Predict the 3D structure of the following.
Amino acid sequence: MKQDEFARILSKRAKITRSQADRVVEEGIELIKDLLIEGETIRFRRFGVFKIVHRQPRLAYAPKAEKLVEVPERDSPTFSFTEIAKRDIAEGSKI
């Protein structure tokens, strides 16, 4: 599903205009990105957690070059579903 389809469904469920839904989705995404850049962890109860994980430098095998290459350290965004969300999705029920 693409962002515009998500916004269309959101507008129907929330009984708001399509442009309002587009704005809510866009602002929500921007807010999550901004908070992650600031180092915040974002928790949505019964859904999941967005956070930044620091990855240490490591060696990895590059099959085309057939040699080890160094992967530098970096901060990486992650998302983890809560156990409740995993269960609900597995059962096919709404969160």
Summary: The beta strands are 42-44, 48-55, 58-62, 67-71, 74-81. The mean pLDDT is 95.
